[in-house]
């Protein structure tokens, strides 16, 4: 039996992973499941899968979790240190599906034990790509991408030499506001931004799809994971979300990966890699689909794409600043304290401030520095927003 853990098990990716694993209960021995405030879901999945330990991110919820697990024999734990402890328990495969930079430390702990890390948490590579990849190499650990675009590229590259790649094209649905007049964007509400045209995902990534901060993170993720130059990475809007990514080779061939928008494909691929197995996913009916459209993204509508290019140029801790500032700006948008377009303005101002302060900040890409920078960038967002309000 393969020993597996799922970090962020109660979320959208986590639940899809629990679903796939639960379909083959004799094949998997579940070690750790983690979640946040949804204690009943966490406890139910821990009981059903016979997990060794369940961890909630929130220390204040430990007693609730203990109560929900009473009599089950599943250990209960809470807090950030408990998450990292759970990640140190020996396993073969880990799903990293916590949302945000909170996924970084457990992911690094997983790599230290040489386990395979199925990486849905793109923030890990955005904040600390070179550090994480070095860690994987040092411990002979495999990282498998779970973001649909990156899984698609990974699959298109099987048997190919990365040096023969000319470009990588990742697709974007364009999000909830693709067809809105730009003048209306300042008034876009949280409810409107939380409706994705094609994918059913967690609220945060859904709003990030509307602003294309998600695609901005994914451009950086592509650069880090495939070690390709930023100018070889393209984004194209593809309203149907059927082609997930394309790899262009030196000879002009363009290899596309197609499938219905169902994350269980990318999750299942990472679970079964290097093999393929039947998955409970609808097969694509091309004739029923009729047509696939591709449209160049308008950077005036999606300024986050430009910010991603600046971040890649700066390198070092800029990715950590960018991601943390984005996460905090998104919190403030969800709390209705700033408007939809203000998210990009604030993130941009924090990146500028970081550029100006560079000489005064220890730039070494260590976990401690990434976490400290993450903290600082969130604080700067709050300062920038207060200043705007004042
Ligand atoms: P989600 O919000 O549905 O779930 C997030 C999970 O993380 C939950 O289990 C939650 O309890 C946990 N969590 C939240 N904050 C935490 C914290 N501070 N510490 C520990 N745990 C915490 O998110 P999701 O949509 O499943 O996305 C998870 C990750 O996968 C994100 O990085 C996202 O960008 C990436 N991703 C998601 C999809 C998708 O289809 N949902 C697709 C591609 C990539
Ligand atoms: Mg994606």
Describe it.
This protein has 390 residues and is of the alpha/beta class. The protein has three domains: 2-145, NAD(P)-binding Rossmann-like Domain (Rossmann fold, 3-Layer(aba) Sandwich), CATH 3.40.50.720; 151-260 and 282-289, no CATH class; 315-389, Orthogonal Bundle (Rna Polymerase Sigma Factor, Chain: A). It has 16 helices and eleven strands. A seven-stranded parallel beta sheet has the order 4-3-2-1-5-6-7, sandwiched between helices. The chain has a four-stranded mixed beta sheet with strand order 9-8-10-11, covered by helices on one side. Helix 4 runs parallel beside helix 5, helix 14 (318-334) packs antiparallel against helix 15 (342-357) and helix 14 (318-334) packs across helix 16. The longest helix is centred in the last third of the chain and has 23 residues, at 367-389. The termini are far apart. The protein binds nicotinamide-adenine-dinucleotide and magnesium ion. Nicotinamide-adenine-dinucleotide (NAD) binds at residues 8-14, 35-36, 57, 97-100, 102, 120-123, 147-148, 199, 201-202, 204-205, 263.
